[in-house]
């Protein structure tokens, strides 16, 4: 899995201390954080970082195409550093954990032509829901 900080540096992004903290918070596999969660974690590393800086930095990373916005629930947009490998999401209904998953077959071509209404389809978003093993064991 490619490193978000390396990718941003490779894009010529000016790495300030504040930007670095936001990138560090978002770096990793299966990371899907709301802006508020990013802000809370960034504050733990850099107490003076403002919410506005976090929001602006997230917006820049999305504009660069190195972070994607995902909407797996109705509450808040989440930020996902897995921007280069197309994937869908698996969400636990109880604890809310989100995994990146890769369904077999191409979901873009899975829609029959008579269901396309003449559209040229460019993207697809599928959210699989259920219970993770921990929550299933408790339920
Ligand atoms: Zn769970
Ligand atoms: Zn994801």
From TrEMBL:
Annotated Pfam families: FUR
Family matches, as SUPFAM superfamilies: Winged helix' DNA-binding domain
Record bears the keyword Signal: no
Keywords: DNA-binding, Repressor, Transcription, Transcription regulation, Zinc
Matching Gene3D superfamilies: 3.30.1490.190, Winged helix-like DNA-binding domain superfamily/Winged helix DNA-binding domain (1.10.10.10)
InterPro entries in the record: FUR, Fur_C, WH-like_DNA-bd_sf, WH_DNA-bd_sf
Family: Belongs to the Fur family.
Protein name: Transcriptional repressor
Organism: Streptomyces endophyticus
């Amino acid at each position: 899995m490619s490193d978000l900080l390396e990718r941003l540096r490779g894009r010529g992004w000016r790495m300030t201390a504040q930007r670095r903290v936001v990138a560090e918070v978002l770096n990793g596999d299966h990371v899907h954080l709301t802006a508020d969660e990013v802000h809370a974690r960034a504050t733990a590393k850099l107490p003076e970082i403002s919410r506005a800086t976090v929001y602006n930095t997230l917006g820049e990373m999305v504009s660069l195409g190195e972070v994607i916005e995902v909407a797996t629930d109705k509450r808040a947009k989440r930020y996902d550093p897995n921007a280069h490998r197309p994937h869908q999401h698996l969400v636990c209904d109880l604890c809310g954990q989100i995994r990146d998953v890769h369904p077999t077959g191409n979901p873009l071509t899975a829609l029959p032509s008579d269901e396309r209404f003449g559209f040229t389809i460019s993207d697809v978003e599928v959210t699989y829901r259920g219970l993770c093993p921990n929550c299933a064991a408790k339920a």
